[in-house]
Amino acid sequence: MTAIPARRRRRMIAAMVTSGLSVIALPSGLFVGANSLLHASGGNSIDSRGSVDIPTTTVEMLAVINSRNEVASLALLAVTPEGKGGTIVSIPVGAMADVAKTEQPHRLADSYATGGLPALKTDVENLMNITVDFADDMTATEFATVISAVGTQPVVLQQPVTDVAADGTSIVLLKGGSLTATPELLAAGLAASQTGIPESERLPQVKALWSSIARAGVAAPAGDIAGTTSSLSPLNTNLFTSTDVFIKALLLGEIDVWQFSATRFTDAVRNPNNVDLYGLDSGEILMVMASVAPSALTVTTNNIAVMVDIPFASAVVAKEVVTRLAYLGANVVLIRQTSDVATELTTVFYNDSLAKTEAGDYSTLLGPLEFTESKDVISGVNLRIVLGNDFVAFLGQGSGASTSTTSTTEPK
To answer: Assign residue 38 a region: left if phi > 0, alpha if psi is -120 to 50, beta otherwise?
Structure first.
């Protein structure tokens, strides 16, 4: 894949300017990644050995295709390091691909239309700044077979899910409101789309359908994907070579759902052809990827790599800290929510004096910092930042207690 660090940094700077250094409200969702990453460690001690690797998270890019061979729904399936459960990350198919200034803006869905699955995979990897382990495209019929173990699930739809029949007429696949849906209907809903209907109107339905599938997590037949999990050995990524395996692994544990927020471009500069084109938030992308798929992230600069521990169940705080760190030039490679009680001071743990020197100006955007030398070594990480109440106060939100919110993981 092609990394474009300079352009990505400019977008991050633009996000900072747009936010006015204030807290940006995110769509309701869960604090992604959470406790599955480095699950056994937290606080000021990584592990008893004093050394740990960033856990392996296996990621699939899945495109659900409609009857016209167009991408109707797009998601990343990220399996936890334990190989049980994970996160479904819904990506708007109308999101603008990461292109150079000299290139014509286009939607991710257009990548598939012109270059098939390889082109879509490349554009998703560039936009998310990751490398995916497996990519697949499936029709509604194919996907229904894969999620058959999900069974009939409740789903709440803000409005009906409609599609286009063979004769071109509009048909209602799922009525609005509260209902139950079979795997066939869930798959058909994700494959449904109509020309001329803005994707912004579809996104709530898409998230609801993914969330309905996620409810089946741990309710499916128990058992391991043979050879994938062990308390002593890393995840066997060689086995993850089909959507069927990814879905089975997800269903062995709890499944979270995150859908990226999207802003429609209406100006002639970014959307010269006036298509259904959307921009994603770079800070939100980084927050999600560093939480659910840290091992898939691509480091784009030679600057220091930073891990962030967040003792607040708040995606708002998480997004704000990664946005500011990226603006400062740091490579955020891992975020985890810890169960520790927040201290007053934000602490920066380092075992390299050069890394400490490079982080000397971080206080300009992170607030007061306490630097502490540590013998703990995390492979691929130069600094570990543990947020304190001072960071929350620096954002102008008051105490950490007032901003800590209950995770809004979709109920099972």
So the answer is: left
Torsion sign (Cα): 192, 198, 200, 201 = negative
The class of domain 54-290 in CATH terms is alpha beta
Cα 249–chain centre separation: 18
The residue ranking higher by pLDDT, 35 or 220, is 220
Cite the DSSP H helix spans in 1-78. Answer: 5-19
CA 100 to chain CA centroid, Å, is 23
Task: Give the residue extent of every domain in the chain.
Answer: 54-290
Three-state DSSP string of 318-333: HHHHHHHHHHCCCEEE
Torsion angle in degrees (nearest 10) through CA of 162, 163, 169, 171: -50
pLDDT, one tens digit per residue, over 275-334 is: 999 999 999 999 999 988 888 999 878 889 999 998 887 888 999 999 999 999 999 998
3-state helix, strand, coil in the chain (%, to 5): 35, 25, 45
CA torsion through residues 341, 342, 345, 349, sign = positive
CA distance 272 to 265: 10
Spatial distance between the Cα atoms of 243 and 253, rounded to a whole number of angstroms: 16
Tell me if 244 sits within 8 A of 146, measured CB to CB: yes
Task: Say how far apart CA 291 and CA 312 lie, in whole Å.
Answer: 14
What residues contact 207, with CB distance under 8 A and at least 6 apart?
90, 257, 259
Q: State pLDDT tens for residues 223-277.
A: 566 555 443 345 677 889 999 999 999 999 989 999 999 999 999 988 998 999 9
Q: Which residues pair with 178 in a beta bridge?
A: 156
Amino acid at 400: G
Strand partners of residue 56: none
DSSP state string for 331-368:
EEEEEEE--SPPPSSEEEEES-HHHHHHGGGTHHHH-S
